[in-house]
Amino acid sequence: MKYKIYTDGACSGNPGPGGWAAIILVDDKIKNEITGSENSTTNNKMELLAPIKAIQKFKKKSEISIYTDSTYVRDGITTWIKKWEKNGWKTASKKPVKNKDLWKRLRDLSSKHSIKWIWVKGHSHNKYNNIVDELAQGAIRR
After folding, report:
1. Could you give the number of structural domains in the chain?
2. pTM
3. Rounded distance, CA 91 to CA 17, Å?
């Protein structure tokens, strides 16, 4: 079975209260919506937690397409992470990688599945990206 996941993170202030959300689709129908929040966090942490929490829902190896409007997440997991690992979790400017613990969790979870990372333009006409954005914003207010 093939799955589609739309993820988003949001923050009111950076740092500040934040929320994340994910929608899991099967045959283009919403199967599951998950959300969460933290009192003091950053937007990037929320963007990372959304796919982490979604992937954790899958117990068996699955074929998943993850849609995100975060180039930070997409580029980080598909390109930058390999360089960070080689450089002892340092950036190109020799600074420690921020959110290393979340990047490692995302890497470890992703390695158990066949995942395709797809960037979508935020706040555009993508139905599911707009829904997940509203859910992430709503999670902040809870």
Report:
1. 1
2. 0.96
3. 27
